[in-house]
Write a structure and sequence with these properties.
This protein has about 250 residues and is α/β, with parallel strands linked by helices. About 50% of the residues lie in helices and about 15% in strands.
Length: about 250
């Protein structure tokens, strides 16, 4: 890996656990310096500490990415602490699942806020440093649920919005050497997936048995599976790939 690669900085939202933490570990292993952004300060500190203990370089930032002023302050802090960001991974997300007639406006607004407003604010703030360098990567996490999923009207709409937002970024930022791509995980074994089984009132084992029948790969994915895709899109090898939505789903589509 070149000296320039080792100096690159990656900012990962929702990087304290699950898929985000796996992405942080993988990009650190790739030689990047990691800024872990998460609402949970203790979890973010622990995740950053684990990377440092493994020989990497990382710092934790407890930030609500739905707040404009907080995101602008974050950009300045990261630049001062680590250097301007070269890679942004919009991973932070929440679920507030319910059927349409049970879903509240708070359920809707909360999910839209984290997924869409958060991705917008982070991308707007951090792309400026990439433009100055003439090189950058923005990778945003969508989902196979973007095609529609019962009980997830808010989540599905938000994840579909991420795809449209990504394609727009690709068109606007390509001339500056910045690529923008989305990654759409399918069934990934995370705390969020296990919460889905609880919502359905069944054991995770039963949920697994039901679900894998529709997955050509016949298994759930792991956070590391998603991290591998992000690692590729965040590197030099993907320099001519932009505006794409890559499914990491074992062949499953909603």
């Amino acid at each position: 890996m070149s000296e320039h690669d080792t100096a690159r900085v990656a900012v990962i939202t929702g990087g304290a656990q699950g898929i985000g933490q796996a992405i942080a570990r993988r990009l650190s292993a790739d030689g990047l310096t990691i800024a872990i952004v998460d609402l949970d300060a203790d979890a973010a500190t622990a995740a950053a500490g684990a990377i440092v203990d493994a020989g990497g370089r990382a710092r934790a930032y407890a930030v609500d990415i739905t707040q404009e002023d907080a995101v602008e302050s974050l950009r300045a802090e990261v630049a001062a602490d680590l250097g301007p960001a070269d890679v942004l991974v919009n991973n932070a997300g929440i679920t507030r699942d319910n059927l349409l007639f049970k879903m509240t406006t708070v359920d809707w607004d909360s999910v839209m806020g984290v997924h869409l407003r958060g991705a917008f604010l982070m991308s707007r703030a951090f792309h400026s440093g990439m433009r100055e360098k003439g090189w950058g990567r923005i990778v945003s996490l969508s989902s196979t649920s973007a095609d529609g999923n019962r009980g997830q009207g808010n989540y599905s709409a938000a994840k579909a919005g991420i795809v449209g937002f990504t394609k727009t970024l690709a068109k606007e930022l390509g001339r500056f050497g910045i690529t923008a791509n989305a990654v759409s995980p399918g069934f990934i074994d995370t705390r969020m997936l296990r919460a889905t089984a609880e919502r359905l009132g069944i054991s995770f084992g039963e949920f697994t048995d039901r679900s894998v029948e529709g997955i050509p790969a016949r298994r759930f994915g792991t956070p590391d599976d998603v991290a591998s895709a992000v690692s590729f899109l965040a590197g030099d090898a993907a320099s001519y790939i932009t505006g794409e939505n890559i499914h990491v789903s074992g062949g499953f589509h909603e």
